[in-house]
């Protein structure tokens, strides 16, 4: 690596560091707007919830576009787009509750079956190798970290019954629990959307990696 290349690498790392700092500030800023300015209780109609839904929709759109323009990884990207679409439907459950309570499960199941069925029937040869290649990339760490933040850490650390009722006693406030849990979820969705952005923004690079993996598999 030349000195010029080293400088470019350091500059790129510095830019990413600044990006990560901004990402970490999004959740606290959204909570501040909701609690200090709008004085709401982090309900379904709040800056925090709307930001969550925006990030999830952004990730779903990126993977859907990547599936369209990247045939060697179409199956993998289609499944990822379907996953984030189901997450978005779940986040919009209150909207679907106007039909009846729990109706969100119907469109979520239809979306999942459609994406899984299409990927298995028409794109089965572009699922496993691209998925394996993805697990070797840095974006995978962001994606899994965000997923675990949403599904595990936010539920456990944000649990009022498990932790905060015992810590705060009579001072326990449900709004505190809601703000903490929703803020952690927003942080997780931020990481996941960033992973989707990094994975899908450089399609040619990832296409070359996938093609190389396919070539090695054929040679074996």
Automatic annotation (TrEMBL):
The chain crosses the membrane at residues 17-38, 50-67, 74-92, 104-128, 140-158. Keywords: Membrane, Transmembrane, Transmembrane helix. This is Membrane protein.
């Amino acid at each position: 690596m030349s000195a010029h290349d080293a400088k470019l690498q350091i500059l790129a790392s510095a830019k990413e560091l600044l990006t990560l700092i901004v990402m970490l500030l999004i959740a606290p800023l959204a909570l501040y707007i909701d609690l200090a300015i709008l004085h709401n209780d982090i309900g379904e109609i709040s800056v925090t919830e709307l930001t969550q839904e925006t990030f999830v929709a952004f990730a779903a759109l990126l993977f859907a576009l990547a599936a369209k323009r990247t045939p060697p990884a179409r199956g993998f990207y289609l499944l990822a787009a379907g996953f984030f679409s189901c997450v978005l439907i779940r986040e919009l459950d209150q909207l679907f509750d106007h039909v009846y309570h729990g109706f969100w499960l119907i469109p979520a199941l239809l979306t999942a079956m459609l994406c899984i069925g299409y990927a298995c029937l028409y794109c089965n040869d572009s699922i496993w190798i691209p998925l394996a290649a993805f697990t070797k990339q840095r974006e995978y760490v962001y994606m899994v970290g965000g997923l675990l933040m949403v599904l595990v850490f936010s539920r456990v650390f944000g649990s009022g019954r498990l932790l905060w009722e015992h810590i705060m006693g009579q001072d326990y406030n449900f709004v505190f629990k809601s703000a903490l849990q929703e803020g952690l979820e927003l942080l997780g969705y931020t990481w996941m959307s960033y992973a989707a952005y990094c994975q899908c923004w450089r399609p040619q690079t990832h296409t070359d990696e996938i093609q190389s993996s396919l070539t090695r598999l054929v040679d074996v």
